[in-house]
Design a protein that fits this description.
Chain lengths: 420, 318
């Protein structure tokens, strides 16, 4: 128990200490978080009328971000899987960073749920024993799997960090099954999120069985794309070194998944527009506009340009293998998928409405502030988690020699000195 | 939970002494799902609501909790050939059921839409307009913003006289499905099918996740984007717990076939007000009821039957 307390104390002390850059970064994020708190207050006194949502288009930016971030959370498995199943050396050293990203992403998803709800004060209604849980509701399942994923990643991630801290290896017999479970669980969270959207026969644009695989591929492109960016930042700003082999494997995963995602999008376009039934109206609205309403058209085409452009750039070896150029296609893929899976999927599902009404959705300033604030909150949490994890991985934070008896050679990272 | 909530109710009452304020009592925040309440809890919840509403609207408001009667399955039939598009049903519904009627976009809620569909969609003059304009589209306003078009028919129209020569009308509202997709997706089971047919909502249990709105193929559900605007003098004090009692901000609402009337043997407001008798309502289990007679004799169809939602709202024509 003493060890656990000193872990918490050392971890907190390390995380709170930082340079000017660190405090400036956290300060900016904190400002955005305060903005979010203000608009959250507005939403829960005035009502969702302060957003651009209507009875016709009642899910917008919030659900879009929610869906996308579930994908980012699931994307962490692209580190965990190669590390533990394929025993990839470079990846194994940084697995815990992926788990930290998953934790932050799931937390962001949960805050977006709060933002999306009309009555967040009644959230307890879906939590037994006080509330009622419905097994027939996909949203119920989504909440279940997301919480499970959060707990799994928290346990696996922090157990690993704690063992590094104390120098006592984890109990593999319990640890490994949890890791395998978290891998399967990552697939489940995004599959269920796809079901959440796709089971609505009332919305023809969503009602197709391609949704889960499309969600998984876009997740496994956007997730590792963000992870690569984060890894490169870590390499350049901390003394933690992430091996090229890990980044290259992630790049390969992004390329494959992005390629499949583009293929699936093109398939959908061909099939829908060839027959061009009324059910294709939503897609038509998204791509070309419907009856003079074209608000989402630029979103769609920019997403296409970003995704296809990123894919082409990825295929060029001099871009892919150059750690200075690699961030460009990664950022493009990330933003492109954010649009395609968010605004480009959720909003057109409501246009036209089931009775054929074509209306448009305008996210208000409140929604943008809220979205920005929640992302800031996510990065706030992520920064703390990554900083702590890096401190432990590099050996900066470890149980004092007297307490541990014999501190294992955790800081024996050959690259540490080189990068510092 | 009961003891806790009653304690809190008592505490709230004591705090207010004699002066009954129109505030939401603490116990209301902690009451359970209506379907799972005991009879005692239901009585308590009802009394609490009556207190609040009466204070809020400065009149005696009753909240009925009449249960479904055995041997009753409500059904509805609408003669589309008779409808003249006067929209009296829309207004009667709004007044009867205490819908929000503010001026700001999003503050106006209507449960019935009478879709005005232009005649002559397939006439020769229209054939050269190309695809997909030949559908017979009207570009105009929608409920909230002026930029909008309804492909199938316009529902905010204001003619000098009805019926218009160049139009026919298709009223729609909640279809009270036997297999309602909205009920399936509700994560807290606050919306459900009552034993006598209608799909209802416990407004106090709704978390405002809006999943049901995404699942409804008939666009029957509305979201209270803000606290409903309901003038005191216009408020209908005869209410039902699962029916027309005033709603709060952030919850979903919809047509419930005027439970406050139909459970007392009366017609829904829309049926009563229809000047041409296009709307028929009754017990599907009673072969002598109007609606059963219609189903037995007329040409009947359901909307979007291919979705297997099995509406209890039927359309017919002579």
């Amino acid at each position: 128990m003493d060890k656990l307390f000193s872990f918490i104390a050392d971890y907190t002390r390390y995380v709170l200490k930082g340079g000017k850059m660190f405090y400036a970064w956290m300060g900016i994020l904190a400002l955005l978080i305060f903005g979010m708190l203000y608009v959250f207050y507005l939403q829960n006194t005035e009502g969702l009328i302060v957003t651009g949502m209507t009875s016709q288009i009642h899910d917008g930016l919030y659900l879009a971000n929610l869906v996308f971030l579930v994908g980012v959370a699931a994307g962490a498995v692209t580190i965990v899987f190669p590390a533990y199943v394929y025993h990839h050396e470079g990846m194994h050293k940084v697995t815990v960073l992926g788990e930290m990203l998953a934790i932050s992403a799931v937390i962001m998803v949960m805050v977006f749920v709060f933002a999306h709800m009309g009555r967040p004060d009644r959230l307890w209604h879906m939590i037994p024993p006080w509330g009622v849980y419905s097994f027939s509701s996909m949203l119920g399942w989504d909440v279940l799997v997301l919480n499970g994923y959060l707990i799994l990643n928290f346990v696996v991630g922090f157990w690993y960090l704690y063992s590094k801290y104390t120098g006592k290896p984890v109990n593999q017999k319990i640890f490994m099954p949890l890791v395998y479970l978290s891998i399967l669980w990552a697939l489940s969270i995004h599959t269920v999120t796809a079901f959440l959207i796709a089971v609505n026969a009332a919305r023809p644009m969503w009602f197709h069985s391609m949704m889960p695989i499309r969600f998984i591929t876009t997740a496994f492109a956007a997730g590792p794309a963000l992870i690569i960016l984060i890894f490169l930042v870590i390499r350049n700003t901390t003394k933690m070194w992430i091996e090229d082999s890990a980044i290259k494997l992630l790049t390969t995963i992004v390329i494959w998944c992005l390629g499949i995602a583009i293929f699936l999008t093109l398939s959908e376009i061909v099939i829908e527009l060839y027959a061009r039934t009324e059910h294709a109206n939503s897609l038509y609205y998204l791509m070309f506009g419907l009856h003079g309403l074209t608000r989402l058209v630029p979103w769609f085409w920019s997403a296409m340009v970003l995704m296809v452009g990123a894919f082409i750039l990825f295929l060029i070896p001099s871009v892919r293998n150059n750690m200075k150029r690699l961030p460009i296609p990664c950022a493009m893929a990330f933003v492109g998928i954010w649009i395609e899976k968010g605004m480009g999927l959720i909003v057109p599902g409501f246009i036209p409405s089931p009775i054929g009404e074509v209306t448009e959705y305008y996210p208000t300033l409140v929604e943008w502030l809220m979205t920005l604030g929640i992302w800031a909150f996510g990065f706030f949490v992520l920064t703390i988690l990554l900083k702590g994890a890096i401190g432990i991985l590099t050996g900066d934070v470890k149980l004092a020699a007297g307490k541990a008896g014999e501190a294992a050679g955790l800081a024996a990272n050959p690259n540490t000195a080189a990068s510092a | 939970m009961l003891s806790v909530s009653s304690l809190m109710g008592t505490a709230a009452l004591m705090a207010k002494s004699d002066d009954v304020k129109a505030t939401v009592e603490w116990a209301e925040h902690f009451q359970g799902n209506y379907r799972l309440m005991t009879d005692a809890e239901k009585t308590e919840a009802r009394a609490r609501l009556e207190r609040r509403y009466s204070a809020q609207y400065s009149k005696k408001v009753t909240v009925d909790c009449t249960e479904a009667a055995p041997g009753v399955l409500m059904g509805y039939a609408l003669n589309i050939k008779k409808c003249i598009g006067c929209r009296r049903c829309v207004h009667a519904c709004t007044e009867e059921n205490n819908q929000s009627r503010g001026e700001r976009p999003g503050e106006r809620i209507e449960w019935i839409q009478v879709l005005r569909m232009e005649r002559g969609e397939f006439t020769k003059e229209r054939m050269d307009q190309g695809y997909p304009e030949g559908l017979g589209i009207q570009v105009g306003g929608n409920a909230y913003t002026p930029a909008g078009a309804v492909l199938e028919g316009q529902y905010h129209y204001d003619p000098k006289a009805v019926p218009e020569k160049d139009a026919n009308y298709m009223p729609i509202a909640c279809m009270q499905c036997e297999k309602p997709p909205c009920v399936k997706v509700c994560p807290v089971r606050t919306t459900y099918r009552e034993a006598d047919g209608p799909v209802v909502i416990d407004y106090n249990w709704c978390i405002g996740c809006k999943m049901c709105m995404g699942a409804c193929p008939y666009w029957a559900r509305r979201f209270n984007l803000t606290t409903p605007v309901l003038p005191k003098e216009a408020m209908n004090p005869v209410t039902h717990y699962l029916g027309n009692r005033p709603r709060m901000r952030g919850v979903v609402e919809k047509c419930h076939w005027c439970l406050q009337r139909t459970r007392q043997g009366r017609y829904p407001a829309c049926v009563e007000v229809c000047p041409v008798g296009a709307r028929k309502f009754g017990n599907l289990l009673d072969p002598e009821s109007e609606v059963s007679q219609v189903l037995a004799r007329k040409n009947v169809f359901r909307l979007k039957a291919e979705l297997n939602t099995f509406p209890k709202f039927f359309y017919f024509y002579d």
